[in-house]
Amino acid sequence: MTSSVTAPHGTEKGLHRRELDNGLRVLLVPDPAAPVVGVAVHVDVGFRSEPEGRTGFAHLFEHLMFQGSESLEKLAHFRHVQSSGGVFNGSTHQDYTNYFEVLPSAALERALFLEADRLRAPKLTAENLRNQVDVVKEEIRLNVLNRPYGGFPWILLPPVLYDTYPNAHNGYGDFTDLEQADLDDAAAFFDAYYAPGNAVLTVVGDLDPDETAALVEKHFGDIPARPVPSRPSFAEPAPDGERRDAVTDAHAPLPALALGYRLPDPGADLHGYLAHAVLASLLTDGEAARLTQRLVYGDELVTDVSASCGLMGAPLDARDPDTFTITAVHPGDVDPQRITAAVDDELTRLATDGPDAEELRRVTARWASSLHREHDRLMSRMLALGAAELVQGRAELADELPGLLAAVEPAAVADAAGRLRPDARAVLTVTPGGAA
Amino acid sequence: MTSTSTRRGADEIGSTPAGPRPLPPLGPQRSVPAPEEVDTVLDSGLRVIAVRRAEVPMVELRLRVPFADTSGREESDHAAVAEVLATTILSGTASRGRVAVDDELAGVGGELGFSVDPERLTVSGHALADGTDTLLAVLADLLLSATHPDDELARERARLVERIELAFAQPSVIARRALQERRYGAHPVTREMPRPEEVTRVTADAVRALQASALQPGGSVLVLVGDLDPADAVSRVERALAGWTGGRAAELPALPALTARDLLLVDRPGAVQSQLRLSAPAVGRTDPRYAALQLANLALGGYFSSRLVENLREDKGYTYHASSSLELDPHGAVLVVETDVASEVTAPALLETRYELGRLAVVPPTADEVESARRYLVGSLLISMTTQAGYASTVAALAAHGLSSSWVREHPARIEAVTADEVAAAAAEFFAPTAFTGVVVADAARAGYGLRALGGVETP
């Protein structure tokens, strides 16, 4: 059974990496802490790759992948995972889509079977498509349209900072686009992007690597290889000025502001990128953080302020280009110009003087602690490993992150602060308005 | 779309020459030994539970102090004062300023968060394991000598007002408030979030007085889970909190019995989505019917593979989310059935929800439905206990009900022992539509007609 499985070539930290003949990349990570296992498939397509006129399609397609496959009627996937004692989910990101379950270890083979069946032969039907368009529209109403600050900033900021369709469009989708999606779109999308060679399978938990490798081969090995799409570059020039836009939010009680900056390419400059992750913490994590001190307690300009390295809130979740964001909610009588001026002032101060070593040590201790907690949860560690393998090319990065962040020097943080320039950013203001 | 050598139709994609394959059976399941634990009550009356779970070098902390409003007054300011207290307690102590508190915690990768609800004050925290003493020292300092400085309090009060205004703009919060008032009238339990004008009136003196009178160790519980030695951890707690003595913390009085009533339509003009919230009496963990009730609840809407989700979401496409859950409080329990649906299907969704409640009561879950729910309940319980944080939260929640971790270790056996007849009996007893009350938050101009046509809804 294992004859067509290539020998592992990366085994540090108990991480076994293989590739099947059909191109599926496989990560096997034994973790005997608890008698549970996790299985995740990360596919190398996210909402940046969806076609023009089909905004929201990558996410809609994620829903369709739960609707049945050759061996599984509609609803069977959910029922088999849950009646094995497991939990499941999927999510669509800028550059990838993941599908996963965590179950008692007795259900390992069953979970592999379930993932293999839909990667081999999903049952795409017009009825399920229409049903899931309705479900997705309710998801968007719940998370965006019927609440204050829905889609802020992840949907609202990109069209201000970026020019090209992949980077700028709404990844949740416009209702008109979702309603026009048809079965041919779904079939073409699956054939183009869901080739086994375009995916990473991650299996983590109470498992034996050799036995699991054999089970992986048994269930995934006969999925025929298909051409792997060439991955387009989403690169576009950095903004050559300050770009501004304003929106009104019918549900928002207070105005809000989002600043967007381009991050360094993590593939080309990982350390420069990680300095921005540390910078985000220095700015807004905790009471003593620079922007919290200045904007909330010092000048009393904002109610809350938050900085994030990565549009979706976590570092290293996307390839280049990705976004550094600073968001704030503020009282109506505060001119947003005062907020941006204070942000610029604090960034200039950091760029000139750098953080002090003790301040930096506290930030990296908090990072280490939060990563330990995240990795204590098998589901989180599995998803971090799979995403790191697919997006950054190295699963090990997920485990190495605390050390890499702790090694970021004050000068690198100062340099990162210096790159967040007013003449190369997006500024989005949100004004309460309309009937609530 | 990217070029590809294949151009298959959906039909071709969905089948292979080999055809459908059989579902693999489940393998053997390894069981886990109980972790090392000490569960004891200190002289102060504080119950301390320390559990060794050393997967990562962290310690999780939970502290629950009963914190009920005992004034008996309908116009009580307790909820507002308690909310301000939980916000400003981190603003500094006699020996540490606000920034020093946070810096000291950050130095050990630590965090402490305070929150209040009508029942209790909860502290959730964690730190790198070698920072446990620092975490406990900061906690003790906050409990014993938070000063709630006037200037910090004034600013935090203003921020809190803004956050509450934001929360009250959330449909889920509006629906929750309306449900609580529909269920419990003016009982203190309805005051989960004070109104902005109540917060504005809170004085520093009132906050300091509440801290002095209500933050008591007697009846409170502190849980530590992580890379620790349990007996040693208890001694560290005893040393760090030696100064925390006094009386008993105030328990929430028993809730009024829930009575069945028409649903109340709460108008939210312009809403594109409606919130349905239905509630009925239930029973808690120590009741012999509890495990059967859990299984019946799962079959209705307690997980994805349930009647409500398969009907309202996967068949009708009315909603992204529909669920049924048990809310447990120290005196009892209630069922809450909830979904958020598009405005135009508000009445149809209520019709289907009532249909599923009635069907559960009179067409009992099948053997397959019971088995599926049983496996899910046992498995998800196992998974929820695999993290330090999950373990700590579960043990703290059990302790608030006077239970210990042995309850959760013994619960799988209780779940396995439930018969299909017991599930059917629980379904009939607790899920009859006539047992429910609740609210519908919707644009009355769009949803009112359909709801009036269905009946059982009090419309404006």
TrEMBL record, chain A:
Q: Which residues form the Peptidase M16 N-terminal domain?
A: 25-141
Establish whether keyword Transmembrane helix is in the entry.
Answer: no
- UniProt region (Disordered), positions on chain: 226-245
Q: Which InterPro entries match?
A: Metalloenz_LuxS/M16, Pept_M16_N, Peptidase_M16, Peptidase_M16_C
The UniProt keywords, alphabetically, are:
Hydrolase, Metalloprotease, Protease, Zinc
Q: Where is the Peptidase M16 C-terminal domain?
A: 182-363
BP GO annotations? proteolysis
Q: Name one Pfam family in it.
A: Peptidase_M16
What's one GO MF term for it?
metallopeptidase activity
State the family named in the UniProt similarity comment for this chain.
Answer: Belongs to the peptidase M16 family.
Q: What is this protein called?
A: Putative Zn-dependent peptidase
UniProtKB/TrEMBL annotation, chain B:
Instruction: Write one Pfam family the protein is assigned to.
Output: Peptidase_M16_C
Q: Which GO terms describe its molecular function?
A: metal ion binding
In this chain the Peptidase M16 N-terminal domain maps to 73-196
* UniProt region (Disordered), positions on chain: 1-36
**Which residue ranges does the record assign to the Peptidase M16 C-terminal domain?**
202-376
> Which InterPro entries has this protein been placed in?
Metalloenz_LuxS/M16, MPP/UQCRC_Complex, Pept_M16_N, Peptidase_M16_C
* Name used for this protein in its record: Putative Zn-dependent peptidase
Instruction: Look up and give the organism this protein is from.
Output: Actinomycetospora cinnamomea
